[in-house]
Each structure stands twice: as structure tokens, then as C-alpha cells.
């Protein structure tokens, strides 16, 4: 959008790592605000301000994928209620920005926070423990992180970028001064030879993996990322029976934990522990299941057991530490107190620009700062235009789009709602694909709104190349229900196989590999 020629390459799938594994909140960070005031820390305050300002753009630019969410914070005494409601009034005051989305695109803006009495709180969230004193309601944003990332990728492609998944950078070519001239890249799906990608400028946006690329470019650079693991587990939505989320203000290790409605289930998380083996997928471990369930138990009216856990996932935060390991923010070196802000670094020897740290909510600001630096180096003067650039799917989207799809294509209500909320204005293309072939108009599984047409669409329009690309990131089933993902795998293999010319043997092999992965997750969580 600034007139540069861009190629974007991703080692596995778009959003395969941290960006599909977040809490999915679009927020300034209530906890950072508390810390900012407690420690008189202006850096934290700036971060809250950035988050709250960006929250607006995230919702405005893709209202089908991000929406306001009410969060209830239960309290057990009058004093606690006063403390939390005063803090949240401050949060309201800081947010200040009005959401500029047409009325037909968003159901609920960000109403001010409110101290609820016990009766009101229990009416809003019937599963809440009757032992509470009262509760405070406030609003933040929620999004589908992996699909938001996909909408960004598709929007970049439509603006002229070349985007490729399953292509890994595994080296650089340098000139005799050590300056990067080409990246050596290798296709991860087909076993084809590595090849060179020449560019004037390389921009490293690899989140928790950023140090590996920095040191590939210049081995003398010192590490900047302090990786921290956070997990979520998934419970049935019936536990709370509410469309609101809950914030648990303090766990036994002094953190906040969220319980959020997501796609008909409840996400419970997260944790925050240093993580060292970046090569290993950060899966949900048995002790993490125990910790999260024990944390939740005092806030719910029924007994919660590990048998209710339907799925779970872990992610690695790309926390940023100061150069040369000088921890200024934290004295105890725990990752939970490191800043979530971002930094753009330019290595003068290799010329590599790295975008480090940050959080999902501020992705646009991070991208703006990084591309400003690229433009500065390339001597291109063009302003950032992303503030009001609607993403793919936002065009022709409106709240009652699902009703129009129902009127035109006669699919069940849940299917129409699912298509509108995931594909936005593009849902009609998908619905037309399904309407043209009775087999594609069938559900993948009887109890879920996903259509077989989505498998074909994901291959043709969304660059899905593996069963996991589809189940984990295109429709999110792997994040919601491991058992259901297991059952869906052969159907997905069959239809992806047709679209990608996989033999029957190949379909079976891929299904077995994927099911074995899910079984390994199930085995760990059963140990809890
Ligand atoms: C548990 C948890 C909860 C969170 N909750 C929130 C939240 O509610 N709200 C919020 O705003 N933020 C949240 N965050 C933070 C946010 O998710 C991250 O800051 C963000 O997703 C990081 O994005 P990224 O693109 O920097 O990293 P990633 O999403 O990890 O992307 C980096 C990509 O680089 C690729 N890569 C690595 N090496 C190579 C290579 N050699 N060649 C090519 N590609 C390569 C990887 O495959 C990966 O996909 C949370 C984080 C965690 C862990």
C-alpha cells in the first residue's frame, strides 16, 4: 500500500504459532494499568494507551471477526468491589475513543463499566458462584485471531503482495561487508530444493523466533526475546451459560485469568512461565490443567472436573528484554512482569530490520513502525494508510448478513451465522460454492455448522495445504474439541485430497499422522 514490492513468507501456516494461540482479547490491558499506577510506570501507561487506541481500529477494520465483549469481574467484599470498579472507571476514561463503525456492523459499542449487585451478576452469568459479594462489568474487544491474521494476509495479497505459507528461511546470502542480499528459502510441504529470494531489504517478524533469524543474519547480535509460555483449556459453554466473559483478578501466583465464550465453548487461561525449547510445540500439560481448574473452581456454582476439558492449546509470548539482558522492568526476572510493548531494531552490519515484542492488539501500530523504518532505509516517502483500510470480508458485511444468506441459500440458521461471522462479505461466495454441489452443502460433522464446501474454499481461496491448516486455523475445530477434530480428519483429508491431488494412500497417511498428534494431546490432559 506504500508502493513497495513485497513478498511475505511463513515457515508453516499463517498464524500457526502464537498468533492463533492468544486469549483473543483486543485490549489495552487492565493489569498493565494497575501496574502502571502501582509502580508509577509511564512505559506501562503508554502501552495501555496504545492498546486502547488500536482496539478501535481492530474492530473497525474487520467487524465480522472482532466485536465488543462484556467481562464480569466477581468480587467477594465491598472494598474489593470499590477498588476494581474505580480501576475500571479509569480504564473507561483512558479508552475515550469512540468506535466508528456503522450501526449495522456492530451490535454493542464499548459501554462504560458498571458495578453490578449480586442479583444482576447472577442473572448475567447464571453459572457464577452464589458466594460472590457483587461484580464489576466492563468492555473490551474479542476476535478470532487466526482468521484475523488470514484476513490480513488476504488483504496484503489483494493490495499486491506475494504471500506464501510453508516456506522457511533457513539462511542468508551476504555481500563481502556482511550485508544481506538474499534469503535461502525451502518449501516445507513438497520436498523441492531450497532457492534464493533476493531483496533490497529484509524485515524479520518472527515473534518468539526472532533471535534465530537475527543471529542467522549477524551471529554477534545478543538475544532480545524472553519466551514465555501461556496455555488455555476449553470447557463447555454451559459451565457459565452466558455470553459474557469473566475476569479472575488474582490467582495464587498473582496473575489475572480469563474465562471467555468462544465459538460455543469457554476458553480458560492463561499461564505465564519461561519457555526454553522453542523447537517444541508448547502443548497443554497436566499440571497446567490442574492449576487452571483449581483457579476457576471458587468462581463457579458447579464442580468442574478434568473430564469436562474438551481441548487446549499453548502459545509462546515474544516478550522483549532490554539489550544485554539488563532487566529494568522486573527485578525477579519473571516473564509475567516484562513489558508487552514493541521495538523496531535495525542491525547496521547485516541491514536486517527486526520487529520485536508487542501484542496482537497493537499489530497495526507495530507494522506501521516497522514499515516506516523500511521506507526510511529505502528512501521512500509514503505514509501509512492502514488506519482505515477495511480488511477482506469487511466489505459488504453487516450484522444481519446471515439472514440474507438464509433467504438466498436456505441453509440452517447456525450455518448462516457461522458463514457470515467467519467470512464476512465473502460468505456469499462460499455459500454459492456449497449451493452448486449437494455434497459440498453437507456438514462436516452433524453437531457443528462447518460445511464441506469450506474445505474446498480453504484450499482454493485461503491457501490451506494440510489437514491441520484447515482444522486448527481455518475453522478452529482443533482449538475447540479434540475428539470432534479427530472425527473430522478423514472427511477433511478426502476433500483436500481431491483439491490437491492426494492419492488415497496419502489421504490415509495424513489422517493417521494428524490423529496421532491429537491423541498425544488427549493423553497428556488425561494425566491431569
Ligand atoms: C497465551 C497467550 C495469550 C495472549 N493473549 C493476547 C491477547 O489476548 N491479546 C493480545 O493483544 N495479545 C495476546 N498475546 C500476544 C500475541 O498473541 C502475540 O504478541 C502475537 O500473536 C505475536 O505475533 P508474531 O507474529 O510476533 O509471532 P507469531 O505469531 O509466533 O509468528 C511468528 C511466525 O514466524 C514464523 N517463522 C519462524 N521462523 C521462521 C523462519 N525461519 N522462516 C519463516 N518463518 C518463520 C513462525 O512459523 C511463526 O508463524 C498472547 C500471547 C500468548 C502466548
Tags for this entry?
10-stranded mixed β-sheet; single chain; FAD/NAD(P)-binding domain; alpha+beta; binds flavin-adenine dinucleotide; 3-stranded antiparallel β-sheet
Overview of the structural elements:
- The chain has 528 residues and is an alpha+beta fold.
- It folds into 4 domains: 25-143, no CATH class; 148-221 and 339-378, FAD/NAD(P)-binding domain (3-Layer(bba) Sandwich); 225-320, D-Amino Acid Oxidase, subunit A, domain 2 (D-Amino Acid Oxidase, Chain A, domain 2, 2-Layer Sandwich), CATH 3.30.9.10; 401-526, Alpha-glycerophosphate oxidase, cap domain (Helicase, Ruva Protein, domain 3, Orthogonal Bundle).
- Helices cover 37% and strands 20% of the residues.
- It contains 16 helices and 18 strands.
- The chain has helices at residues 30-38, 42-61, 78-95, 118-124, 145-158, 210-217, 286-296, 363-378, 401-409, 413-423, 427-435, 452-462, 467-474, 477-480, 482-500, 504-526; strands spanning 7-9, 25-26, 66-75, 114-117, 134-143, 162-164, 167-174, 180-187, 195-198, 203-204, 225-236, 245-248, 257-262, 265-269, 273-274, 311-320, 342-346, 353-357.
- Strands 2, 3, 4, 5, 11, 12, 13, 14, 15 and 16 form a 10-stranded mixed beta sheet that branches.
- A hairpin with a 5-residue loop joins strand 7 (167-174) and strand 8.
- It is globular and about 70 Å long.
- The protein binds flavin-adenine dinucleotide.
- Flavin-adenine dinucleotide is lined by residues 9-12, 16-19, 21-25, 168-169, 205-209, 213, 230, 270, 315-318, 358-361.
